[in-house]
Amino acid sequence: MPPQKPPGLRALGPRFLIFVLILFAVNVWVSQLIPSGHERIRVPYTPTFLQEVKQHNVKSISSRGETIQGEFRHEFKYPPTGKDSKVSKLFNTEVPTFADTKTLSAALQEGGVQVNAKPAEQGRGFLANLLLGFGPTLLLVGLFVWFARRAARQGAGGGLMGFGKSGARRVEPSEQTVTFEDVAGIDEAKSELTEIVDFLRSPDKYRRLGGRIPRGVLLSGSPGTGKTLLARAVAGEAHAPFFSISASEFVEAIVGVGASRVRDLFKQAKEAAPAIIFIDELDAIGRARTAGSSFGGNDEREQTLNQILTEMDGFDPAIGVIVLAATNRPEILDPALLRPGRFDRRVTVQSPDTAGRRKILEVHTRSVPLADDVDIDTLAATTIGMVGADLANLVNEAALMAARREHEKVTQADFTDALERLILGSERKIMQTEADRERTAYHESGHALVGMLTPGADPVRKVSIIPRGPALGVTLSAPAADRFSYDIAYLLGRIKVALGGRAAERLVFDDMTTGAESDLEQLTQIARQMVGRWGMSEAIGPVAVIPRDGQGPLLPGTSEVSEQTHRLIDEEVRRLVERCDEEVRSLLSANRDKLDALVRALMERETLDEEDAYAVAGVERPPPPGPREVLETVSREALPPPSSG
Ligand code: ADP
Ligand code: ZN
Fold first, then answer.
1. CA-CA distance, 157 to 161, in Å (whole number)?
2. Ligand 1 test: best mutation among 169, 171, 219, 229, most atoms within 8 Å of CB?
3. pTM to 2 decimals?
4. Cα(513)–Cα(58) distance, rounded to whole angstroms?
5. Given the DSSP bridges, would you call strands 169-171 and 321-327 parallel, antiparallel or unpaired?
6. For residue 352, which atom of ligand 1 is closest to its CA?
7. CA distances, 60 to each of 44, 79, 409 (Å)
8. Would you tell me how many other CB atoms lie within 10 Å of the CB of residue 92?
9. Cα 81 to Cα 103: distance, rounded to the nearest angstrom
């Protein structure tokens, strides 16, 4: 489960501009509210001023040139009536140049007035100005920082158990219910961690023998393969407290908070030792330092990373704190993290194979009442490419489906329908004209027929013109067995199948629709990787010149790319795809009768399963796969799932 993100600085990001605007407005407002200096009333020299002097109401004056500033003994109202009149002790007046200074001095003495006790004011002082100008800003910024810190703290710690400043979640051994029993299908990873469990259980045994225990273990694998689950199971097996935090939370925190959270987290864990610290999404802070990273967040990231490294270097492994971290992109991690004494042990969590999926399904159906017809083996065989989280989700969906249908137990049909929904999206009812449906039927039949007629392509499992999710129809092809790598023929097959929909539309209607967009994206991605990553183009040769997923920064292990190479990649991709497109178009026009037959059947029945589809088209179904000669292969993680809209 991805931990909830605290509403830190980044959460406020888009609102920042508004915030600044409000700040500005408040500043203007406040500076107008506060009068410049003290309010002084302006009184005439004669008669008012002289009169007041005579009546002993003037306490003191200071003069500058012709101007006299002074203070009355009692509040004075001027003008005496009217709505403009003001009340104050402070006043100004102008001494006319023709006034007789002798009489004035005499009058002042007579009236007991202090003269020039203070220098005349020259408006607001510099400091006052500064304070008035920036005071409100400082106040608001202060408040903002305070709120953000508080929010970050509460947001992260408020989950299971509020936990100090670190924002981590802490699970006590007594609450920890996950054990190795709950983790299935990833046995290698599991067995690599049993040693850790043993150490946490009886650290003395290891201490006595002086064995070196790893401080950090890096779990790497695709999302949903069970890395978090595994870490929790280690804590559960060892009866150790489990502190977990997601590295992305550090990055989102306000500057300076990340490092102190790390410090706090390690402190808490040491006090609770033996204990497990689990850092999810380590790549969020641990990616290799590159130039030109995004605004702001970088310093924070680096500080946090450094703090983690310092903590890991600093503690004595014998105290029994083990740091587990998870990432799905180990290749981008800063090498500093992987040095001895840090995350020097690396455990790869593989996507499960058929047997593994079977075991995972068993774990998750333990508490689900299953009907007799449920066949876990078949389910495991038809869920190729799915990981633990997908399978857990599948079981859950099937149970919901069964509940909706008011079944006593979950049946096989519930499972297959749930699976279909997960893979293809749920069916959508929209009004369509016959012409639109026919168009979709040609598009899908194009995909399907190319799939059936291309040797090495995945068998076609289902063709349908029922709209699902964003797509108007689907063609699902899936391999018959787990594949761990792909050869060129297979990849070209994937490209051709993706092109089939658009090619059929062109053949029949002589134009195209926007419906092929996702097909084109998929095939472009495959073609680009063939050319730029897997060395399958003569012109580029066996060098990796584009990033793994086709975007983002170049990774270590990728060759520097010149402008010219870029152009060459583009040309090669284009050449590859255009060659495939030509082949597909001639294949379809040579088999127009099969295409039309598929369309007629689809218009009538909306959905064809594997058997019907092959029968309608009159194509022999492919034999189950035998051992195949592997020519050139790539890892299967690199491909999008094989279904075409
Ligand atoms: P990751 O951390 O690798 O992204 P998680 O550990 O969060 O994956 O997995 C999410 C959920 O999927 C788990 O809580 C569990 O229910 C299920 N799951 C994943 N892998 C497995 C597995 N190997 N065995 C049993 N259940 C699994
Ligand atoms: Zn399509």
1. 6
2. 229
3. 0.63
4. 92
5. unpaired
6. 23
7. 17, 21, 98
8. 15
9. 30
